[in-house]
Amino acid sequence: MLSTLQVILYRSGLVTAAASFVLASSAALLPDDSVMSNLIEKNLDLFYAIGSCGLGLSLFLIHIYVAEIKRSLQALWFLGAIGSLATYSTLAHPAGMNLVQYVIENPIAVWFVGPLFASLTGLVFKEGLCYGKLEAGLLTFVIPSLLLGHLTGFMDDGVKITLLSTWLALFVVFAGRKFTQPIKDDIGDKSVFIFNDLPVEEKADLIKRLEQQ
């Protein structure tokens, strides 16, 4: 079960990831010769790193009753982080490119960074499923659609830009709405953890008594 401080940190991680993603991705929507676009492009790796760390923090603190699912999302994030670092150090940097630029120009690199975004997809799916958030549910489809479209080459640039813009808007709404949500929602139900900590015999006895009610 999370504490109030942990919930705030969890939500702060989401905001950090969203803000970094919005800043980095906005370069694709700005004129190529604009000062802001050039400034963002020079710092894409920094935005990517900060956003990844924010997502990692949220996945470390995320409240999921099924531990295996939580560990799976964390493992995906770890694989994506390692893949991103390896892609940058062995492929992008030697070619004189930043990581984002390299992935854009070499779609096959999605295989290396993809697990990180898969963990993000899992996080928003959890939020959409647990709290009925439309923007989270839509992100569950938008994120993999854009990445798979880029990887396979079946999607033209116009569609990619549309999906990217949709992703930006939904991510901002998703992260912002987390701070309008009661803290208790992310803290969770303590009774579940109390039950899990019970010895096997006491669990069986409690279940039997509940069934008799």
From TrEMBL:
It comes from the Eukaryota. InterPro entries: DUF2301 (IPR019275). The chain crosses the membrane at residues 46-66, 75-96, 108-125, 137-155, 161-180. One of its GO terms (cellular component) is chloroplast. Keywords: Membrane, Transmembrane, Transmembrane helix. PANTHER family: F3H9.20 PROTEIN. This is DUF2301 domain-containing membrane protein. It comes from Solanum commersonii.
